[in-house]
C-alpha cells in the first residue's frame, strides 16, 4: 500500500497548540477537521502543571498565599482573596470593615483588569489588533494602583490571612475615583470599535452557542454561564465579604453565543465600577487586621469549602486542617478548568476560525487550568 | 569571418555610444531602473509608515530605536532578514519551495511597467491593452502563494494557500466588473486614455461611479490579503498562512510582494478612479493655487521635520533633522521653478493619491476585526458581485441614454447602489447590536 | 429602518474608524521609551532585596534571628551567625537566592528590625544563574544596573 498522506483522508487532524498564538498559553487542542469544519476535539492539558495543590501541603497557611497568585496570574488579587477567606472561615476570624471594603475594591478592580485583558486578546484573536492596546492602557492604570498599594503589579500577594498587610496609601481614593470616572468612557470606545461593527457581529453572533442546560451540566460558571442566560453569581447567591450590602446587577445573555458573553463581560465591567463607587463611600478609617495569631493553626479535623466569584467564574478552595501549621489538603476548584470542558460542546460543527474565537470567549488561563 | 571581425573593430567607440543613446531600449531601461529603485524604497518605507501609523492609532510610538524616530528601521529589518538562515523544511518540495516567492515578487514588480505615473513621458510603456496586461500579470502572483503553501508540506501553509487562492479568484471577479464600468466610460483599455477621459469629463470616475469605486477598494483590500480580509495569513488562526515555513530572504520576498501589491492596487485605484496624475477638480480654473501644492508640500515637510528636530533632546538628532529640513527647503525652491513645477505636477498628485489610499489600507487594519472565511466568500459573491453587475448595467444604460453627462450617471449609480444593498440585505435583518444589555437584571 | 440605513451607509464601520483616527494625536501616546525614560516605581515596590546598615555606624541592622529564612516559602534565605563572647548572635553570612524568589514580601514582614527590605530596584537580570545568588556584600550594596543613554 502506498504511503498515506494527510490529503488522502477525509478527516484532517490538526494540532492547535501547545505553541499557537491563539490558545492563550500552552493549551493543545487536537481538532478533527472535515475541510474547515470541526468534527470533534480533544484538549490536552498539563503543560503548565506545577503541582500547586501538593505544594500547599508543604507550606504553612501564610506561606501558601503567594502561590495562589500564580494560578490565574491575570487575576492574582481574587485568587489570594479566595484563599485567605477560606482560611479565615476555617479559623472563624471576623474581618474588620475597612479590610472588607478594601478587599472588595481591589477584587473588583482585578475583575475589570482581567476582563480588559480578555477583551483585548479576544479582539486580537478575531483580527482586531487595536483594542488590545487600549485595554492594556486601562489595565495599566489598575496595575499602577496595585503597585502603589502592595508593591507588586501582577502577582500581588495583596492580602494576608485575617485582613490586609498594608493600609491604603494616601492617594488611593483619588486614584480609584479617577479610574472609575474614566473607564465608562473608554468602554464606550471599545463598543464603538466592536459592538456595533458588522464584522464583529458576524464573527461572534451564533458562534459557540452553549445552551443553559449544557452549561449547568458541564459545571460552567462565571460569564460563560451567564452568557447562556443562567443567573448565577456567587456574589449574589452566597454573598461573601460585604457583597450583600452593595447594589449591583448581574448581566445575563440570551443566546449563549460568543457575542452575548462579550456583552456580559462588558456590562460586568460597568457593574464593577458601580460596586467600587459604593465601596469607596463606605470606606472608613479603622483596623485592617482581624484577630489572627502569629502562627496559624486551625483546629484538627476541621475542613471548609469556600468559593468566590472570580473574574472567570466560581473559584473555590477546599481546605482541610490536621491541626499542624501546614494544611492537610488544599483542593482548588479553578473556573478555567471547568469552563474548558465546554469547549468541545461549543466548537462541534463550527469552522476552524471559530475555534480561536471560542477558546477566546471561554477566557481560560492555563496557569489555572493546569495549576 | 575575418570580414565580420574587421567590421566590428572598425566601429569606433563613439559610434557605440551613439548607437546606444539612440536605441529605444535605453530610455526604457533607465526608466525601469528608476521605477524599480523608487518602488523598492517606497515599499521599504511603506512598512515603516505602516508601523508608525498603526502605532499612533494604538497610543504607541512605534519604532524609535534605530536612527532618529526609527527612520533606519527598514534597513535594519532588511539586513536582519538577509542575514537569517534560509530554512527549507525536510518534507518540502525543494525546487518549488525555492521558486515560489520569486514568482510572487516578479509578478508584483513587473506590473508597474504599464502604470502611467504622469502625462507624456512619465510611463515606461503605454500598451493599448494596459489594463488587461496588469490584471493578467498581477494574477500570476497567486501562483507564488499557492505553490509556496503547497510545497511547504505543512498544514497551516496549505490551508492558507487554499484560502488565498479562493479569495483572490472571487474578488478578482468583483474588481474586474468594477473596472469594466470604468472601461465603458473611457471607451478604451489604455490606462493613459482612461485618465484623459476623466480630464475631458471634468470629474474623477470615483464621483461619476462611486459604487464601482467602493467595490474596487473593498476588492483591492481583499486581493492584497489585508485586514479585514487577511485570512490567508491570519496570525491567530494559521500562525502566518502560506509563509509560515519561510524564513530569511525568501520570507522577505513574500513580504516585498505583498506590499508591492498594495502599492499596485493603490496606483490602479488612482488611475482608474481618482484621475491619475490630474489635480483635484481638473476642470475648475479658479483653483489654480492647487498647482503650487508641490511647493507647499515640501515647505510643509520642512516645517514638520524642523519641528521634530526642535523637540528632540539628542544633539545628533537635532542636526539630522535640521539638515533634512534644509534639504526640504532646497527641494521646495527647486520645485518652485515653473519648468520643474510643470514637469512634476502630475507625478506629485499621483503619488499623493497613492499615499492617501495606502494610508486608508493601514487605517482599516488598525480598526477592523477579521472576516471568517465563509463570510468573506459571502461578501464577495453575494454582495459585491451582484452590486458590481447592477452598477455595470446601469452605467452602460446611462451611457447609452444620456451620453456623457456626469450628473445622471452619478445619481443613477448611487440609486442603484442603495437599492441593491436594500435588496441584498432584505430578509437578513440579523440581531440588533445590543440584545443582552437589556437583560442586566 | 434606521438600523438598515446605518448598515447601508457603513455607519458602524465609520464610527470605528473615527476612534482609531482620533487616537493619532501625539498626546494620546501612552507608552514609555524604557531604557531612556525610566518609569517611576511605587514606594512600596517589592524589588531587589537589601540588607540595611545603620545609617550612622554603618553596622548591619540584622540580628541574625533567622525569622526571614523561616518565613520564606521557597527556603531561599540562608543566615549564618556566630556567638560572640557575650553570648550574642552576630551575623556572618547572608545568602539570598533571587532566582527562586517570588517577591512575596513575607521575609520583610517577618523581619523584626527592618534589616531585610525589598527595595525599588527592579533591574536584577544577570547573565548566569549563579549571578542571582546574592551574598551579604551584594545585598548590602544593592544592584548596579547599567544606565543606558543614547
Key features?
heterotrimer; A: 371 residues; alpha+beta; three-stranded antiparallel β-sheet; 8 strands; 13% strand; C: 150 residues; Alpha-Beta Plaits; two-stranded antiparallel sheet; 23% helix
Description:
The complex is a heterotrimer of chains A (371), B (441) and C (150). With 371 residues, chain A is α+β, with helices and mostly antiparallel strands. Chain A contains 15 helices and 8 strands. Chain A has helices at 52-57, 61-68, 76-91, 97-125, 131-150, 172-193, 198-204, 212-217, 223-227, 234-237, 258-282, 335-340, 342-347, 352-362, 366-370; strands spanning 12-16, 28-34, 37-44, 159-160, 163-164, 303-310, 313-321, 327-333. The termini of chain A are far apart. The model of chain A has no long low-confidence stretch (mean pLDDT 86). With 441 residues, chain B is mainly alpha-helical. Chain B has helices at residues 2-10, 13-22, 24-57, 73-83, 94-110, 130-151, 155-186, 191-201, 205-208, 210-223, 235-238, 248-273, 293-311, 315-336, 338-367, 373-402, 406-425. In chain B, helix 6 (130-151) runs antiparallel to helix 7, helix 7 (155-186) runs parallel beside helix 16 and helix 12 (248-273) packs across helix 15. The longest helix of chain B is centred in the first third of the chain and has 34 residues, at 24-57. The longest helix of chain C is centred in the N-terminal third of the chain and has 12 residues, at 11-22. The radius of gyration of chain C is 25 Å and the shape is elongated. The model of chain C has no long low-confidence stretch (mean pLDDT 84). Classes of the chains: A alpha+beta (371), B mainly alpha (441), C alpha+beta (150). Chains in contact: A-B, A-C, B-C. Chain A binds chain B through residues 6, 12, 14, 20-22, 36, 123-130, 133-134, 137, 193-197, 199-203, 205, 227, 229, 249-255, 259-260, 263-264, 267, 271, 351-356, and chain B through 54, 57-60, 155, 159, 227-228, 230-231, 234-237, 239, 365-375, 430-431, 433-437, 439-441.
Amino acid at each position: 500500500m502506498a504511503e498515506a498522506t494527510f490529503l488522502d483522508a477525509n478527516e484532517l487532524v490538526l494540532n492547535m497548540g501547545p505553541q499557537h498564538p491563539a490558545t492563550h498559553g500552552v493549551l493543545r487542542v487536537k481538532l478533527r477537521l472535515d475541510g474547515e469544519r470541526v468534527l470533534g476535539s480533544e484538549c490536552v492539558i498539563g503543560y503548565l502543571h506545577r503541582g500547586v495543590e501538593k505544594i500547599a501541603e508543604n507550606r504553612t497557611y501564610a506561606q501558601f498565599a503567594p502561590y495562589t497568585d500564580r494560578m490565574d496570574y491575570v487575576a492574582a488579587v481574587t485568587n489570594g482573596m479566595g484563599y485567605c477567606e477560606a482560611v479565615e472561615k476555617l479559623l472563624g476570624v471576623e474581618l474588620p470593615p475597612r479590610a472588607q471594603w478594601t478587599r472588595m475594591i481591589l477584587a473588583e478592580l482585578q475583575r475589570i483588569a482581567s476582563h480588559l485583558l480578555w477583551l483585548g486578546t479576544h479582539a486580537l484573536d478575531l483580527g482586531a489588533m487595536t483594542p488590545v492596546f487600549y485595554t492594556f492602557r486601562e489595565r495599566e492604570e489598575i496595575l499602577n494602583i496595585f503597585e502603589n498599594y502592595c508593591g507588586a503589579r501582577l502577582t500581588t500577594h495583596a492580602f494576608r490571612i485575617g485582613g490586609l498587610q498594608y493600609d491604603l496609601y494616601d492617594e488611593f481614593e483619588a486614584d480609584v475615583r479617577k479610574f472609575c470616572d474614566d473607564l465608562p468612557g473608554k468602554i464606550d470606545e471599545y463598543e464603538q470599535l466592536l459592538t456595533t461593527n458588522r464584522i464583529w457581529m458576524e464573527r461572534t453572533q451564533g458562534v459557540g452557542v452553549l445552551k443553559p442546560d449544557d452549561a449547568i451540566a458541564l459545571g460552567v460558571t462565571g460569564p460563560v454561564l451567564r452568557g447562556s442566560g443562567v443567573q448565577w453569581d456567587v456574589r449574589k447567591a452566597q454573598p461573601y465579604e460585604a457583597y450583600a450590602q452593595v447594589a449591583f446587577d448581574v448581566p445575563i445573555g440570551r443566546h449563549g453565543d460568543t457575542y452575548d458573553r462579550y456583552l456580559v463581560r462588558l456590562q460586568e465591567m460597568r457593574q464593577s465600577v458601580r460596586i467600587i463607587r459604593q465601596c469607596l463611600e463606605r470606606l472608613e478609617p479603622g483596623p485592617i487586621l482581624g484577630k489572627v495569631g502569629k502562627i496559624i493553626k486551625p483546629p484538627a479535623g476541621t475542613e471548609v469549602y469556600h468559593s468566590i466569584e472570580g473574574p472567570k467564574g466560581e473559584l473555590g478552595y477546599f481546605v482541610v486542617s490536621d491541626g499542624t501549621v501546614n494544611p492537610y489538603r488544599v483542593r482548588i476548584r479553578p473556573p478555567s478548568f471547568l469552563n474548558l470542558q465546554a469547549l468541545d460542546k461549543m466548537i462541534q460543527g463550527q469552522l476552524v476560525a471559530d475555534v480561536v474565537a471560542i477558546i477566546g470567549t471561554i477566557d481560560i488561563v492555563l496557569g489555572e487550568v493546569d495549576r | 569571418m575575418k570580414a565580420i571581425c574587421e567590421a566590428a573593430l572598425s566601429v569606433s567607440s563613439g559610434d557605440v555610444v551613439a548607437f546606444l543613446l539612440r536605441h529605444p531600449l535605453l530610455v526604457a531601461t533607465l526608466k525601469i531602473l528608476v521605477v524599480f529603485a523608487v518602488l523598492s524604497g517606497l515599499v521599504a518605507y511603506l512598512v515603516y509608515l505602516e508601523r508608525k501609523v498603526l502605532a499612533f492609532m494604538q497610543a504607541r510610538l512605534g519604532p524609535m530605536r534605530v536612527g532618529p524616530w526609527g527612520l533606519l528601521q527598514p534597513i535594519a529589518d532588511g539586513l536582519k532578514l538577509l542575514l537569517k538562515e534560509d530554512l527549507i523544511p525536510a518534507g518540502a518540495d525543494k525546487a518549488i519551495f525555492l521558486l515560489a516567492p520569486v514568482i510572487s515578487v516578479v509578478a508584483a514588480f513587473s506590473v508597474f511597467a504599464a502604470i502611467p505615473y504622469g502625462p507624456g513621458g512619465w510611463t515606461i510603456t503605454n500598451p493599448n491593452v494596459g489594463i488587461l496586461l496588469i490584471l493578467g500579470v498581477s494574477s500570476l502572483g497567486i501562483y507564488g502563494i499557492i505553490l509556496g503553501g503547497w510545497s511547504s508540506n505543512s498544514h497551516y501553509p496549505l490551508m492558507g494557500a487554499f484560502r488565498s487562492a479562493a479569495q483572490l479568484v472571487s474578488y478578482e471577479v468583483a474588481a474586474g466588473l468594477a473596472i469594466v464600468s470604468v472601461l465603458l466610460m473611457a471607451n478604451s483599455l489604455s490606462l493613459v486614455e482612461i485618465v484623459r477621459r476623466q480630464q475631458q469629463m471634468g470629474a474623477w470616475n470615483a464621483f461619476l461611479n462611486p459604487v464601482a469605486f467602493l467595490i474596487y477598494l473593498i476588492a483591492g483590500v481583499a486581493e492584497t490579503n489585508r485586514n479585514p480580509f487577511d485570512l490567508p495569513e491570519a496570525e491567530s488562526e494559521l500562525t502566518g498562512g502560506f509563509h509560515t515555513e519561510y524564513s530569511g530572504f525568501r520570507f522577505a520576498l513574500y513580504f516585498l510582494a505583498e506590499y508591492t501589491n498594495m502599492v499596485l492596487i493603490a496606483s490602479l485605484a488612482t488611475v482608474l478612479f481618482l484621475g491619475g496624475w490630474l489635480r483635484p477638480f481638473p476642470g475648475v480654473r479658479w483653483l489654480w493655487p492647487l498647482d503650487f501644492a508641490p511647493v507647499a508640500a515640501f515647505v510643509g515637510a520642512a516645517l514638520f521635520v524642523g519641528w521634530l528636530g526642535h523637540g528632540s533632546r539628542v544633539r545628533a538628532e537635532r542636526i539630522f533633522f535640521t539638515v533634512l529640513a534644509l534639504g526640504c527647503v532646497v527641494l521646495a525652491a527647486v520645485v518652485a521653478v515653473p519648468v520643474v513645477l510643470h514637469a512634476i505636477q502630475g507625478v506629485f498628485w499621483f503619488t499623493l493619491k497613492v499615499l492617501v489610499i495606502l494610508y486608508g489600507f493601514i487605517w482599516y487594519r488598525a480598526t477592523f476585526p477579521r472576516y471568517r472565511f465563509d463570510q468573506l466568500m459571502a461578501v464577495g459573491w453575494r454582495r459585491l458581485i451582484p452590486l458590481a453587475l447592477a452598477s455595470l448595467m446601469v452605467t452602460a444604460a446611462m451611457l447609452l441614454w444620456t451620453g456623457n453627462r456626469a450628473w445622471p450617471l452619478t445619481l443613477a449609480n448611487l440609486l442603484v447602489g442603495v437599492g441593491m444593498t436594500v435588496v441584498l440585505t432584505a430578509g437578513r435583518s440579523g440581531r440588533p447590536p445590543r440584545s443582552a444589555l437589556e437583560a442586566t437584571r | 429602518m434606521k438600523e438598515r440605513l446605518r448598515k447601508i451607509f457603513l455607519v458602524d464601520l465609520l464610527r470605528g474608524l473615527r476612534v482609531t483616527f482620533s487616537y493619532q494625536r501625539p498626546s494620546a501616546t501612552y507608552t514609555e521609551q524604557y531604557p531612556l525614560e525610566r518609569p517611576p516605581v511605587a514606594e512600596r515596590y517589592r524589588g531587589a532585596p537589601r540588607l540595611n546598615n545603620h545609617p550612622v555606624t554603618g553596622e548591619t541592622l540584622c540580628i541574625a534571628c533567622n525569622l526571614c529564612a523561616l518565613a520564606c516559602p521557597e527556603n531561599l534565605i540562608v543566615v549564618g551567625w556566630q556567638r560572640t563572647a557575650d553570648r550574642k548572635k552576630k551575623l556572618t553570612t547572608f545568602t539570598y537566592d533571587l532566582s527562586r524568589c517570588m517577591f512575596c514580601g513575607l521575609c520583610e514582614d517577618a523581619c523584626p528590625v527592618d534589616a531585610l527590605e525589598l527595595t525599588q530596584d527592579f533591574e536584577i537580570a544577570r547573565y548566569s544563574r549563579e549571578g542571582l545568588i546574592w551574598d551579604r556584600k551584594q545585598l548590602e550594596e544593592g544592584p548596579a544596573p547599567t544606565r543606558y543613554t543614547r
